[in-house]
What does this fold into?
Amino acid sequence: ELVFDSPFLGALSRTLLFSVLVVSIELVLGFLLALSLLKDFRGKTFFRTIYTLPIVVAPIAVGTTWRLMFAQGNGPIPFVLEKALHWNVNTGTSTTQAWIAIILMDVWHWTPFVTLTLLAGLLAIPKEPIEAASVDGASRFQMYRYLIFPMLMPVILITVFIRVMDSLRSMEDVYMLTNGGPGRSTTFVGLHIFRTVFAKQFYGYGSAMSLIVLYFTIVICWLLFNALTGKASK
It folds into this structure.
């Protein structure tokens, strides 16, 4: 029945699209910020402390906070955009704005985690090969392409796996921010399973959905592993 269940398949496809978007953005931003944190600057310790605070905030609190920020009429984001650019922001009626809101929320919440993991990987890279390549006249691009990225690949793999698995089960923050709307445009698979089990009380069907999502996540991680390591599937 799940194979022909269009609401479930739609929720699964939206979840996959959301995962690809947020993980890609967070990986790029996290790497750039990790590189910037390698340098010494005034207030570095204070910035790193403030920057990493979103990690410890519960997803339901994050969703509630961003819902207040995007609240129509009195939210700070719609107010500023309307006054400065004359944009009418309403995540309750615009699918595009709802997607932008949940992507911004997830990027704000989890980019610090990506930054910290990649920063730890960069700090663990030995300096001798990089210094030798610099003496031999290697360009910055060549050092990143042939030295830094290959040595950083295990950390990148772990980071991507954690974020993919976490983004595929996003539910609480999205539920609090958009409640899956407008319509079903932001109803991801976790929220769809939640409503199937607790609202409709279809416990067996919800369990089947959960198992399918688990297998789907395993396959996605296996494909990512082969893609990022360059190994041919057997």
